[in-house]
Structure formats: structure tokens, C-alpha cells
Design brief:
The protein is of the alpha/beta class. The protein has a 6-stranded mixed β-sheet with strand order 1-2-3-4-6-9, sandwiched between helices. A 3-stranded mixed β-sheet has the order 5-7-8. α1 runs parallel beside α2, α3 packs across α4 and α4 crosses α5. The radius of gyration is 15 Å and the shape is globular.
């Protein structure tokens, strides 16, 4: 499965599970992730959600290998699938906590910052590098990024992106807490349990 799900008491832990691809988002992962969040939203036993990645990265972004030039209709359909994941995070009243280890690049950064709280390991890296591969920001970036860092900084991060470490991300408000490497999921679970 591209997504793993398990419960720790009232917290549903949703794990992106393509570690060999650094959890890059392709269509199957997109669908499974949206399903998992929507299911957690609908489950009365679940009171908070943790979103994390298997292996050494949170999410390296969209899976470039799964992309190609396409006509307007299939391109729109693909964009709507990406929206569905973010809409699920934004529309659930249950708090969603992201636990970031390693890289959160492009759509991976967007996925993390769509969450209500972002916990990152001190050696995590964030980048809004959509333009580097000729893409516009997706996964809600144009809403979530300015909401977190302000319009002026968001504009610069989208136009002239460069990766940043966790300390800088915390300083500008992109993330909410920095923890020791390897501890992001544990701390996120503790926070989610408190929220639950």
C-alpha cells in the first residue's frame, strides 16, 4: 500500500509509504492519502491525525517520473486529485499534525504546511522548488504558504526558491516546532494525543 494507517488510542497515524521513492506523490498515493484522511475524518473513534513519511524523507514532492504533458481535461483531473488531499486536511475539524523527517520538497512541503501543526527534525529540509522543474505550486501552496509566512516572503519563496533548514523554517513561521532527529513522529504523536 502507498499509505499505511494505524491507530494509537484516539490518534490515527497516516504514513506515506513509498520510502524507496522518498514518498514522492504519484496518483495512487494521492488517492490512498485522500481516502485515508477522509476515512479518519469520518471515524468517530479518531480525534486527531498525524501525517508522516516512511523511511528517511517526509515527502520529496510530486513524482516527476509519473508526469507528462497532457491535455487540459486530464490535467485538471490530476489537479483536482491533489486538491482533494488538501481539502480533506482543511475540512476535517480534527487537528492534523505533520511529522517531518528528512526532506519536504515541493508538494511535500505543501502537504506539511497544510496541516494544523508541523513538527520537524532539526536536520529536516524544506523547499518550495516548484519553479525549478517548471511547475506552478500546487497542493494548496498559494493559500497555505502566505498564511504561514506572509505574502511578501511567500512570493519570494515561490519565485526564487532555495531549500531551507528547520531552524530557518521555524524562524519564519513555516513550521511550529523543531525536535531532535528521529523524534518528529514521537513528538507529533504526543501533541496529537494532547489535542485528542
Amino acid at each position: 500500500a502507498a499509505v499505511r494507517v494505524h491507530d494509537v488510542r484516539a490518534v490515527r497515524v497516516i504514513t506515506l509509504n513509498r520510502p524507496d521513492k522518498l514518498n514522492a506523490i504519484d496518483i495512487p498515493l494521492r488517492l490512498e492519502l485522500a481516502d485515508a484522511i477522509e476515512t479518519a475524518d469520518g471515524a468517530s473513534s479518531v480525534r486527531a491525525i498525524v501525517l508522516t513519511g516512511a523511511g528517511k524523507a517526509f515527502c520529496a514532492g510530486g513524482d516527476i517520473a509519473s508526469m507528462q504533458r497532457m491535455e487540459k481535461e486530464p490535467a485538471l483531473e490530476r489537479a483536482h486529485l491533489a486538491q482533494r488531499v488538501i481539502r480533506a486536511i482543511w475540512s476535517t475539524p480534527k487537528p492534523v499534525v505533520a511529522a517531518v523527517e528528512g526532506s519536504a520538497f515541493g508538494a511535500g512541503a505543501a502537504l506539511a504546511i497544510a496541516c494544523d501543526r508541523v513538527i520537524a527534525a532539526s536536520d529536516a529540509r524544506f523547499a518550495t522548488t516548484f519553479t525549478s522543474v517548471g511547475l506552478a505550486g500546487d497542493m494548496g501552496t498559494f493559500v497555505s504558504l502566505p498564511a504561514r509566512v506572509g505574502n511578501a516572503r511567500a512570493r519570494q519563496m515561490m519565485m526564487l526558491p532555495s531549500p531551507m533548514g528547520a531552524d530557518e523554517a521555524l524562524r519564519i513561521g513555516l513550521i511550529d516546532a523543531v525536535v531532535a532527529p528521529g523524534a518528529a513522529a514521537t513528538v507529533a504523536l504526543a501533541d496529537a494525543t494532547r489535542l485528542a
